[in-house]
Design brief:
Order of helices and strands: HEEEEEEEEEEEEEEEEE
Shape: globular
Strand order of the largest sheet: 1-4-3-2
Helix content: under 10%
Largest sheet: 4 strands, antiparallel
Number of strands: 17
Low-confidence stretches: 1-12
Structural class: mainly beta
Number of helices: 1
Mean pLDDT: 82
Distance between the termini: 42 Å
Length: 216
């Protein structure tokens, strides 16, 4: 039996989320042939379980009670001072006026959940004990709500000439867009509360705009 197998005690404590329903390739990759356990991209209390001969993680596992995932401990979840965690840098933002509803049932309060911001898909909320803290992925990365990680988005590409007016959606911000100027994308923002519609090439009310374009 390999060292990746969880102990009975840790299985009882961990909370597992199946990832098999996703068709997106995440910004985390499993070693082949595996199986293996790998750390989360930036949340020290989470880690992934990888199946044999599969590069996409199968389960997202969560340590309880502010414990951190340990690659060396048989228990897998240890006190933070016992674990070296070097996550991808994310930026904590000021509190939102409209945070999401975090999981509130008693069985979920001890675990960390990462929830997308519906107004800006480069941002996410870190939910713990029913409270939400707003964070942002690195520039030109979007938050993947299935794997709960940040994933790089494609930067806009403009043609070298100005034969016609070209407007492009921002890869992560619903209220932003680019106008191409001789090969250079120039950033613009919609008026407050409006989103850019890639279909009509205009700013419109959010309910009229499909802003799920972070995978462009």
């Amino acid at each position: 039996m390999g060292s990746w197998i969880l102990t009975a005690m840790s299985v009882a404590l961990l909370l597992a989320t199946s990832l098999t329903a996703s068709t997106q390739s995440p910004a985390v990759s499993c070693p082949v042939p595996g199986p293996a356990l790998i750390p989360h991209q930036f949340e020290c209390s989470c880690f992934f379980q990888c199946n044999r001969n599969d590069t996409i993680p199968a389960l997202l596992l969560r340590c309880p009670n502010k414990l951190h995932y340990s690659e060396t401990s048989p228990a897998r979840c240890e006190d933070p001072e016992e674990v070296l965690c070097t996550p991808l840098i994310t930026t904590r933002l000021t509190a939102s006026t409209d945070p999401p509803a975090c999981p509130s049932d008693q069985s979920a309060l001890d675990y960390v959940y990462l929830v997308s911001n519906p107004r800006n898909c480069s941002q996410f909320y870190r939910c713990h004990q029913g409270e939400a803290q707003l964070f942002e992925c690195p520039s030109y990365w979007y938050f993947d709500p299935v794997f709960e990680v940040c994933t790089p988005a494609k930067e806009p590409s403009c043609p070298p000439t100005n034969d016609e007016k070209i407007l492009l959606p921002h890869p992560t911000q619903c209220n932003a867009f680019y106008i191409c100027d001789w090969g250079n994308p120039v950033l613009f923002y919609c008026p407050s509360t409006l989103f850019f519609s890639n279909k009509t090439k205009e700013c419109d009310f959010p309910q009229n705009v499909d802003c799920n374009r972070c995978h462009l």
